[in-house]
Amino acid sequence: MEEVRTVKVARGLSIVAPWHSILLEGEGVCVLADLHLGIEKELESRGIQVPANLYPMIFRPVEESIKGTGCERVILLGDVKHEFGRPSEEEWFFVKKLIREIRGMGCEPEVVRGNHDNYIISILKLMDVKLHQPYLRLGRFVLTHGHLKVEEKGHLIIGHEHPSVSIRDELGVRHRFKAFLSGRVGGRRITVLPSVSPLAYGSCVNELPSEELLSPMLKGMDLGELVPYVLEPGVDVRRFPKLSDLSGAGDGI
Hints:
The radius of gyration is 17 Å and the shape is globular. Strands 8, 9, 10, 11, 12, 13, 14 and 15 form an eight-stranded mixed β-sheet that branches. Strands 1-2-3-4-5-6-7 form a seven-stranded mixed β-sheet. By secondary structure, the protein is of the alpha/beta class. The protein has one domain. The longest helix is centred in the middle third of the chain and has 16 residues, at 89-104. Helices cover 20% and strands 30% of the residues.
């Protein structure tokens, strides 16, 4: 087991470093987003060759987060599987495997439905797993995938955007890292989780204008007060300057 440490982000909320999850401290809950189980099949259909089985890389952050925190529940914050339509054989197999392995660690999984989770209810019903849609409230926190606008008051926790940060070094080489984002947007507190899938890097938030982002809770908004916590999975999490100070860092630091 890798040693984990918690990085305080807000009252009652910490990143489980060096992994893709957060811990809701008063709830005994770990939250991870955007596993995209089965994404390999779609990429292969487009002629993109990837490792035949990404599941061990996807499960490891889940496993290490549970072991490192002793949490009692794991909330999967949408896009557990990748295919929009009916689950493929691979998705069916790996979603069931994920649920069994989480339970085998003495932890209970729950799912907040994402836009890729069409038809997942059939698997979750079979496995007796709670499905929440469009959001789940835990105390002061409102957990939702992020593809729909949610007006519920509270500290909003979303996935969907797959945020990353891009930095160019003195040689002009561009380095891109997954990142957590946390701060205030439009007068409300928000935390955005990176994707667990090693193939989903998503939106480069210090390069893209916010009008080009995916989530309706971020799109077109002033994101300058958001602080990125840059993630190198299994290695470290580092707090970066807020986005208003980081813009242009993609052109060198």
